[in-house]
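User: Please fill in residues for this 498-position structure.
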């Protein structure tokens, strides 16, 4: 490998889809590309670099022009993807307005990843946008998506952020940047809606076949491929939502164009993590109705899946009534998958495993009453579960509350019952809890401080925060401040001005 070069092995299978799905489009070169951050472990796992070269030396040797689109890897064939979407309930034709797909990196083991530039200039889908992105929001996407990855949650990731040397005009003038985004693919619910809106059955079928080959090869040969695909997407989305709810993640813009068909978290805009437990929590300044509030997320995911089912309708059955029935049935299973998985996840957060006798109701009551107590007492979602995981909880501070000690007695009685079975012990419960309850989440005030410094070129706080977030389940020395919610208690608000 040449120093400074990366070992790209790009293919372009997406462009084999009907042309309606994309427009070939070059990134617009920028004035002064500078690499701000580069993801060495990700580069290594993509087969882009070996890790024998010292990270600092490799960073210095990397050519920033490759991370803004001023230069492109040899086999790239950039294109902007077309899609549609329900944005806060309203249907619009969209498309990559400020992104291009550079190509698909194929690793030695045959895994395929989209490489996309976000913020790389206008495309035919830009509408009135400038095609650009500001440094702060691109660093934000990099940081939060890496945090999600480390939490074990499927997500797109950031390979690099490079500044452009050009201003971007938002509420204020900001530094421009390009994020190199890596995804299993960027195909969305909205990609299907796009084909359906154009009443292009062939395109729709081609997209079903492509996604099955690329993401769900075990479904190849299914009797009704579109139905099999719908069922699978329902399942992976239910699993994703359970993960979000496990760590208190609020996506903020769960529009159908921001729901990935392969079950990855995608498009980090005004997302944030909940501090004190409240299902009504909303951080995004544009979500006036609380449509995408923490507790609404599973319902909104199901609503989005219904839009997917509608888009696929003509492929579900030749008879429209039967097709509608199939669609309803498939999407209806979301609630079943989600409820069951959520319950098992919450049990795990409390160190509980199913016992031989039926303890479902008892466990549900335990979970519900803890959540009700947390909400009434504004208890921090992350820290409460983590405190319970430590086994050294003292009934002081918030926990001196009578309601809490009563709940804890019941919980401990349930655990004692569990420990009577030889395969279960306080140690195994604790290990289970500690694997599901993070110590560190990206605390809103720390993220804001890191981005503020990053926007001026000072990456120290960003890198320090990123380092802590890379091992979210592991207590790290001298990192207490990373566990604390915002001491100022000012309600947090996130903005979509990305
Ligand atoms: P988002 O809310 O980030 O999911 O974006 C919704 C749509 O707006 C997508 O089609 C984006 O490509 C497009 N978009 C967002 N920001 C810009 C921008 N600055 N310039 C052009 N298009 C944009
Ligand atoms: Mg989007």
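Assistant: Residues filled in for all 498 positions:
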């Amino acid at each position: 490998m040449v120093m400074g070069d990366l070992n790209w092995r790009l293919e372009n299978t997406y462009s084999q889809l009907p042309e309606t799905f994309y427009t070939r489009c070059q990134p617009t070169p920028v004035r002064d590309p500078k690499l701000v951050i580069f993801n060495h472990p990700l580069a290594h796992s993509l087969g882009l670099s070996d890790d024998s070269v010292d990270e600092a030396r490799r960073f210095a040797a990397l050519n920033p022009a490759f991370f803004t689109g001023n230069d492109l890897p040899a086999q790239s064939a950039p294109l902007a993807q077309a899609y549609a979407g329900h944005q806060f309930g309203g249907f619009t034709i969209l498309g990559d307005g400020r992104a291009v797909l550079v190509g698909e990196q194929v690793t030695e083991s045959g895994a395929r990843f989209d490489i996309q530039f976000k913020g790389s200039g206008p495309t035919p889908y830009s509408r009135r946008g400038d095609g650009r992105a500001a440094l702060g929001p691109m660093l934000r996407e990099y940081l939060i998506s890496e945090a999600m990855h480390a939490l074990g949650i499927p997500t797109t990731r950031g390979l690099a952020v490079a500044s452009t040397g050009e201003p971007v005009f938002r509420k204020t003038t900001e530094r421009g940047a390009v994020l190199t985004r890596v995804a299993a693919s960027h195909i969305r619910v909205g990609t299907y809606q796009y084909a359906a809106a154009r009443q292009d059955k062939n395109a729709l079928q081609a997209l079903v076949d492509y996604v099955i080959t690329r993401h769900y090869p075990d479904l190849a040969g299914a009797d009704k491929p579109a139905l099999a695909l719908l069922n699978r997407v329902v399942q992976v989305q239910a699993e994703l939502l359970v993960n979000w709810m496990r760590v208190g993640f609020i996506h903020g813009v769960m529009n159908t164009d921001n729901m990935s068909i392969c079950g990855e978290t995608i498009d980090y805009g005004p997302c944030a993590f909940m501090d004190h437990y409240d299902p009504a929590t909303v951080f995004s300044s544009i979500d006036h109705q609380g449509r995408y509030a923490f507790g609404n997320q599973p319902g909104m995911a199901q609503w989005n899946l219904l839009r997917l089912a509608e888009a696929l309708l003509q492929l579900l059955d030749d008879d429209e009534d039967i097709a509608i029935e199939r669609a309803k049935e498939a999407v209806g299973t979301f609630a079943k998958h989600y409820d069951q998985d959520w319950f098992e996840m919450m049990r795990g957060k409390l160190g509980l495993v199913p016992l031989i006798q039926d303890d479902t109701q008892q466990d549900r009551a335990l979970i519900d009453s803890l959540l009700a107590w947390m909400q009434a007492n504004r208890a921090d979602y992350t820290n409460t579960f983590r405190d319970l995981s430590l086994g050294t909880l003292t009934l002081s501070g918030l926990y001196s509350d009578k309601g809490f000690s009563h709940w804890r007695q019941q919980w401990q009685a349930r655990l004692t019952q569990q420990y009577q079975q030889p395969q279960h012990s306080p140690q195994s419960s604790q290990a289970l809890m500690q694997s599901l309850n993070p110590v560190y989440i990206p605390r809103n005030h720390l993220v804001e401080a890191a981005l503020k410094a990053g926007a001026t070129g000072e990456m120290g706080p960003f890198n320090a925060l990123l380092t802590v977030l890379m091992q979210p389940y592991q207590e790290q020395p001298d990192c207490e401040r990373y566990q604390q919610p915002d001491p100022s208690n000012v309600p947090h608000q996130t903005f979509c001005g990305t």
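For context: The chain is about 40% helix and 15% strand.
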